[in-house]
Write a structure and sequence with these properties.
This protein has 13 helices and no strands. The chain is mainly alpha-helical.
Length: 244
């Protein structure tokens, strides 16, 4: 195998976006196909086969690439890990579709607010769908997509504290939208003052903004509601330790 062929393989692998693409497999591949794909790549591209390239940049790339191949094999060989991974792949696809059409989301929300989106149950179902997609995007680190869908959900159902809280949580990720995040999290707390989680989220924002006293006050309120709240206990300990 020539060095050029090796570079072409590495370039191709670098464009893989998930474990299936790393092993050049369909999502429907069975366990035997996963195993065969891995061993085929190992026979051709294991770094030990290219000792003459040792301590060169291309060999370093190959070692990194083969570590990725090994990780893909380990993940897809374990039924439980693979099932969880497949759920993440499906969520990523939904997020990708969502982030590609943020204007459509805004238009749907605006149509609902103007009374043009159908009956109340349809609007509620759409808002919940947008919320679920936004929550999935937030968990996967796709902040812009999360903000787009959660913003729409919050506009469609402004009295739903869960939507306002998660929208605030997404806004809090970006420095330039943290003030907006404060307004959304405060709205969630006002709508559901007995929810300790919302107060912890608000406290986390205050901590990040440098407002330690406000953060401590919210955490103390959260612990009155839920004395066993581990997140509130941990954050409060850290804030109080920093005061000393």
């Amino acid at each position: 195998m020539t060095e050029q062929e090796l570079k072409e393989f590495l370039d191709l692998l670098s464009r893989a976006t998930n474990h299936y693409e790393v092993l050049n497999l369909e999502v429907s591949a069975d366990a035997d196909e996963v195993k065969q794909a891995y061993y085929s790549l190992a026979r051709r591209f294991h770094p030990d086969r290219f000792h003459e390239l040792a301590r060169t940049p291309i060999h370093a790339r190959l070692e990194s690439a083969f570590a990725r191949i090994t990780q893909a094999h380990e993940m897809l060989s374990d039924p439980d890990h693979r099932a969880n991974y497949d759920l993440k792949i499906a969520a990523l696809k939904r997020v990708s579709n969502l982030s590609a059409t943020p204007t459509d989301i805004s238009m749907k929300a605006a149509a609902s607010q103007n009374g043009a989106a159908g009956n109340a149950s349809e609007d509620a179902a759409l808002a919940e769908k947008l919320f679920q997609e936004g929550a999935a995007a937030l968990q996967l680190g796709h902040t812009n997509a999360a903000i787009a869908s959660l913003s729409a959900a919050a506009r469609m159902a402004p009295n739903q504290p869960r939507y306002r809280a998660y929208y605030g949580r997404a806004l809090a990720v970006q420095t330039q939208t943290q003030r907006m995040a404060e307004a959304e999290l405060q709205a969630a707390v006002k709508l559901d003052p007995a929810n300790a989680t919302y107060r912890v989220l608000l406290a986390g924002l205050y901590r990040n903004l440098g407002f330690a006293r406000r953060a401590i006050a919210e955490l103390e309120r959260a612990l009155v509601i839920d004395p066993q709240n581990a997140d509130a206990q941990k954050m409060l300990r850290l804030l109080e330790a920093n005061k000393r």
